């Protein structure tokens, strides 16, 4: 099997302008404000500082500050000084933010469910399992490549 050819077919399918709307929609829900509001929603009630969000999203703290400013302007989050450590700012989600996250998550799940339903059970179940495997292997191989890059740089 020619895996390079298969990879090119995969990339072309993902980049196809008529099909890329699906990818863009997925990216919308997994980046920026959406990603932050979903993280806060999932962790409601826990003390969260901006650096926790930056770590989770693999985003700079400066970018997180901008996102938090926007979400605060939209009344979706609150920020307050920690009572235990006055140097820390705690971030929380408001009722408006919770409603937004619930609606957005429901909409997103609905879109994915519609696609999976159109595929049919026979194709949808293996697709999801294979996609999970694809992401896991991609993460593992990505970490190996990063370690190799770090090793190569230290030799120079």
From TrEMBL:
Which molecular function terms from Gene Ontology are attached? DNA binding; DNA-binding transcription factor activity
* Protein name according to UniProt: HTH marR-type domain-containing protein
Keywords of the record, alphabetical order, are: DNA-binding, Transcription, Transcription regulation
- Which PROSITE patterns does the record match to this protein? HTH_MARR_2 (PS50995)
> Which ranges carry the HTH marR-type domain?
3-143
């Amino acid at each position: 099997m020619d895996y390079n050819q298969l990879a090119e077919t995969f990339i072309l399918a993902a980049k196809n302008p008529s099909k890329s709307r699906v990818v863009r929609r997925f990216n919308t829900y997994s980046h920026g404000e959406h990603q932050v509001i979903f993280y806060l929603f999932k962790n409601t009630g826990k003390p969260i500082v901006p650096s926790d969000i930056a770590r989770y999203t693999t985003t700079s703290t400066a970018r997180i500050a901008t996102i938090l400013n926007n979400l605060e302007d939209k009344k979706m989050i609150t920020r307050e000084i920690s009572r235990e450590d006055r140097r820390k700012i705690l971030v929380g989600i408001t009722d408006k933010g919770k409603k937004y996250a619930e609606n957005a998550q429901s909409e997103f799940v609905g879109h994915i469910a519609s696609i999976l339903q159109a595929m049919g059970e026979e194709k949808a179940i293996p697709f999801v399992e294979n996609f999970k495997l694809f992401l896991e292997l991609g993460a593992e191989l990505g970490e190996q490549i990063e370690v190799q890059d770090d090793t190569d740089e230290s030799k120079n």
